[in-house]
Amino acid sequence: MKILRLETSFQGKASKSFQLGNAILENLVKKYPGSQVHTRNLVHDEIPHFNEIHFTSFATPVQDLSTELKRAVQYSNNAIEELMESDIIVIDVPMYNFTIPSSLKAWIDHITRAGVTFRYGENGIEGLLKNKKVYLAIASGGIYSEGVMKDFDFTEKYLRSVLGFLGVQEIFAFRVEGVAIPGIKEEAMPKAIHAVEEAFAF
Ligand SMILES: Cc1cc2nc3c(=O)[nH]c(=O)nc-3n(C[C@H](O)[C@H](O)[C@H](O)COP(=O)(O)O)c2cc1C
């Protein structure tokens, strides 16, 4: 298996989503021995904020791209190539202000491309990211999988929608949650890792 790992927390190794992502990755490598893992750190990447020039570059046929437009489409081309080559994508997702980090949103803006990762066909919209599995490692200060804050979660809900739109049919979400709540935070990581191990035991 070719695995693409997206790191998105600015907290590096201390990051909870990174630690949970690592647990997922370890289990994937055990399940599929010989897998190749390619890591992309979206915090260190200088992802261009999606702008008119990028949109124009997407809509321009390759042979008509100016030097400026070629430069503008480069990040998208590289990101899509990495994605297309992968069978499995592991995404670390720290929750910031109820949603995903803006770097991850910027990455999504560059990989969501009509005619490349989705198309408008006779039967409506067709996602072109076929036969891929996505694993989400979501970390949050509060609890969103149940209870009063459930409707405030725009991490899993959003990622399932946009990746589903792009054709990904298998999306698995794991959460380390309540990391800011005394009495819950102490057990949050062991509980999350246990959930990963249970899921891979079958
Ligand atoms: C800028 C910022 C915004 C945050 N917003 C939320 C939030 O809306 N809800 C929440 O439950 N936790 C929030 N948190 C807490 C983080 O989700 C939590 O610390 C999590 O562990 C971050 O992921 P990481 O450890 O992988 O960096 C926020 C943290 C930061 C730094």
UniProtKB/TrEMBL annotation:
Family: Belongs to the azoreductase type 1 family.
Record's subunit section: Homodimer.
Record function comment: Also exhibits azoreductase activity. Catalyzes the reductive cleavage of the azo bond in aromatic azo compounds to the corresponding amines.
Annotated keywords: Flavoprotein, FMN, NAD, Oxidoreductase
Record's catalysed reaction(s): 2 a quinone + NADH + H(+) = 2 a 1,4-benzosemiquinone + NAD(+); N,N-dimethyl-1,4-phenylenediamine + anthranilate + 2 NAD(+) = 2-(4-dimethylaminophenyl)diazenylbenzoate + 2 NADH + 2 H(+)
Domain of life: Bacteria
Ranges in coiled-coil conformation: none
E.C. numbers: 1.6.5.-, 1.7.1.17
Cofactor note as given: Binds 1 FMN per subunit.
Pfam families the UniProt entry points to: Flavodoxin_2
Sequence positions that bind FMN: S9, S15, K16, S17, M95, Y96, N97, F98
Domain Flavodoxin-like fold: 1-198
Protein name stated in the entry: FMN dependent NADH:quinone oxidoreductase
Cofactor(s) needed: FMN
